[in-house]
Amino acid sequence: MVQQTREQWSGSRGFVLAVAGSAIGLGNIWKFPYMAGANGGGAFVLVYLLCILAIGVPIMIAEILVGRRGQSNPVAAMRAAAEESGVSPVWRLIGGMGVLAGFLILSFYSVIAGWALDYTLRGLTGALSGLGAEEAQAQFGSLLDSPGLQIFWHTLFMLICFLIVARGVRGGIEWAVGWMMPLLFLLILVLVGYGAWIGAFAEGFTFLFRPDFSQLGPESVLMALGQAFFSLSLGMGAVMAYGSYLSPQESIGRNTVVVITTDTIVALLAGLMIFPIVFSIGLEPPAGPGLLFQTLPYVFGQMVAGSFFGFLFFLLVVFAALTSAISLLEPATAYLMARRGLSRLQAAGILAVIAWILGIFSALSFNLMSGFHPLGFIDALSGKTFFDLLDGVTSNIMLPLGGLGVALFVGWRMKRAAVAEEVRLGSYFGLWYFVLRFVSPVLVVLVLLYSVGVLRG
Ligand code: TRP
Is-contact 325 332, C-beta < 8 A? Predict the structure, then answer.
C-alpha cells in the first residue's frame, strides 16, 4: 500500500527525530515534574513507568503501524486499515476523536509555551541574574497575573507553530528537531549537575525514586496513565500521522524503543533537575503548573552567567514545545486538507486561529477567570479552572480512550496477517501482540472505570 506521491521522511533518522520531537516537550520538562510533585513522588513515578511499559510501548507500535498501513491522516488511515481488514469504517471515529484531542491540547499547550517565551526574553535582558528564591517566585506570579502578557506570548507561539506546519513535513519538522534536541538534552544534564551541587539533591532524589504508596491518592493512577499518553504523544493520531510518512523498509519496533527510552530519560532528568531545588528553597512539591518556572530561575540566579544559561535553556524549551505543538496541529491539518480540499496554508491557518481563541481562556484561567469553575458542581472537580479541566479531560480521558481504541482495533479487528506483515517484529511479535490484545486494553479500562468511581465518590 505504498503511494509514491506522499511525502516521506528522509530515512529512519528523520522519523525518529520527528517522533522524539513530538514526544519530548513541555510534557517532560514542565508537566511531569509538577504531576509527580502533586501526586506524592516516587509511587507516582513507578506507576508512570509501568504505564509506559505495559501501555505506551505496545500502543505506540500499533499507532505507527496503522499510520504506515493506511498511508494517510489519522481518520483516513483508520478507515483504510479497517476496509483492508473488512471491518466497519466506523473505527475512523477513533481517529476523529484524536484529531479533536490534539487540537484542544494545542490550545493550552501554546499558553504554557508562551510562559517559556517570556522567560527566554527575561534571560536575554538579564532579568534572571542574581534572583533569590522569593524574587523568582514573585516574578512568576506577576506573569500569571497578567492576561495581556500571557496572551501576547501565546499569540506569538501559535503563529510560529502555524508557520512551520504551513511549510510542510520535511521542510519544517525534521529541520527543527535535528539540532535542537541534542542541545536541550545537554543543557538539562548541566542543570541537573548544578542543581545537585546547590540544592538538596538527596532529598529530591528520594522524593522522586522512593515509592511511598501512602502518598498515592486514588486519582493519581489515572494521572499517571494520562501523563504517559501525554508525554508519548499517544492516543490522538500524532504518531499515526508521522507513521504515514515512514518508509516501508524502516523498523517500527526499534524506532519506538529509541523514542520511548529517550522520552522517559528526559522526564526523569527534568525531575532530578527540579526537585533538589524545590526542597532547598522551601517550596512544596505540589506547587502546581508553575513549578518549573518557580524553581529554575533561582538556579540561574545562583549561576555564573545565569541569565545567559537561563536564556539558552528557555529557548530550547520553546523549541522542544514547538516540535511537539507541530505534531498537535499536523493531524488536524492533514485531515482538513484531505477532507475539505484546503491548501496546507489554509487548513493550518484556520485551525491555529481557533486553537488560539480557545487558548485565551486557558491564559485567563490563571488570573481573571481563576475563580470560574465550570464543573464546580461535581465535588471532585470543584476548584478546577477551565485550563485544569481542558488538560484533565484531554490527557486523562480522551487520550486513553483513543489509545484503547487503537489497541482494540489493531489487536482484535485488523487481520492478523496484515498486522504481522506491517510491523515485522520478528520473535517479539507474539509478546507484543499478546500485550496489545490482553494487557494494555484491560489496564486502560480498569484505570478509567476506577476513576469514574472516584469521581462519583
Ligand atoms: N508529548 C508532548 C509533550 O510531552 C505533547 C504532545 C505532542 C502530545 N503531541 C501530542 C500529547 C499528542 C498528546 C498527544 O510535551
Answer: no
